[in-house]
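User: Assemble these into one structure.

Assistant: Restating your components, then the assembled model:
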Amino acid sequence: MSSPTAAALIIGTELLTGKIADQNLVALATSMRTLGVRLMRAHTVLDDVVTIADELRALSRAHTWVFTSGGVGPTHDDVTIDAVAKAFDVPVEISPELDGLLRKAFGDRLTEHHLLMARIPRGATLERSEAVPWPVVKMNNVWVLPGVPEIFALKMNIIESTIPKTAPFVSLAAYVRLDEGHLKPMLDAVVAQFPSVEVGSYPRWTDPDARTKITFDGHDRGVLNEARAAFQALLPEDALVRVEG
Amino acid sequence: MSSPTAAALIIGTELLTGKIADQNLVALATSMRTLGVRLMRAHTVLDDVVTIADELRALSRAHTWVFTSGGVGPTHDDVTIDAVAKAFDVPVEISPELDGLLRKAFGDRLTEHHLLMARIPRGATLERSEAVPWPVVKMNNVWVLPGVPEIFALKMNIIESTIPKTAPFVSLAAYVRLDEGHLKPMLDAVVAQFPSVEVGSYPRWTDPDARTKITFDGHDRGVLNEARAAFQALLPEDALVRVEG
């Protein structure tokens, strides 16, 4: 069974000029693991309509789902909605529903500029969940999410309750005292013995005790437990610090 | 004068499975601003040789410089060196110099597996600076950097002292009480008046006072100061919280 796949398009000049670090990829990736969707890649690009539209066209053809982050405000550097429309060759129009929500949210403080956030590509749908008051714009297989991390994380609730859940991914870990040079033959043995398990090895530079984290990822918790047990059996005495998951 | 350009290739399944957030893009982006190099995009991909090689071929043709992050240890999931060699169609060989450094660094603890980290693509050079003891592998216009953030940041010293510096980018900021809907006409006026200035607008969701950060980026500090002053002149009284840069 092959998993559905996804790609992230992270939009924001601020991320490529060192002003801020992205926080949304971890949130998206975590939701994808829960849903059993394999996140294949994340592209971070500048606030440029043509670049974003080109990326969207290619990513939406290659993957089951695409998730954009950022560029959905009302100012000159917010070009994501225009780029989604361009990618699918449709015009931009006003969503009466978003227009109504914006009027209600801003009340007396509303200006014509706030209403720019009611613009959606023609044919887009508004996706919602009970827990989240504001809908997400979805155009074909592209979900348009805001860049603000607090709102992005909140919207994951809509994603998780809307996208069909297949086999979720499970991740186990073992923290060990040995470095990767010493661990390599043991890891190679486990990788060969358990082809369905994705084994990861990560040096922990600032931890003087647990110098390496080994991860075991896959769909079947039973097999993952076997793989971790096989790894532990190869370790010298006292090399294991702790396990997780 | 068009600036040299760069792309980042961030390698690591752990970044696409929610295990960890990248910290290296901010460090790289900051160094690129200092050097006057325009960082155009960053692609995050899985630990897969073919994917990485394909990306490297495309990115190295399109940009002045490419920087990879991650995948340079000795275990089965470290495939960056093989992918760089594949991208440029050269074999992998042992660097006698890295071999010597590894033997010296690991001493009695050395295994044959540690020496896997002496592998480089044929034709690669080792770049160094006085301040950093361990060199960086460079193949044509591709710089191969480790994923561990502490070491990645350290290696930026080699990058900054080796790549020719052109006109550095300068960034000024203004923090204001207004939201983007109210700021839009003022920003549009400044964008129209100062075409050489990149103006960014960023909502600050968790700050009840300075609700929006406006940035002014470019090569000429004098012009940036003029653009920020023009923006400030358009603000209502008491709307400015503080300036930066």
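Chain A has a mean pLDDT of 96.
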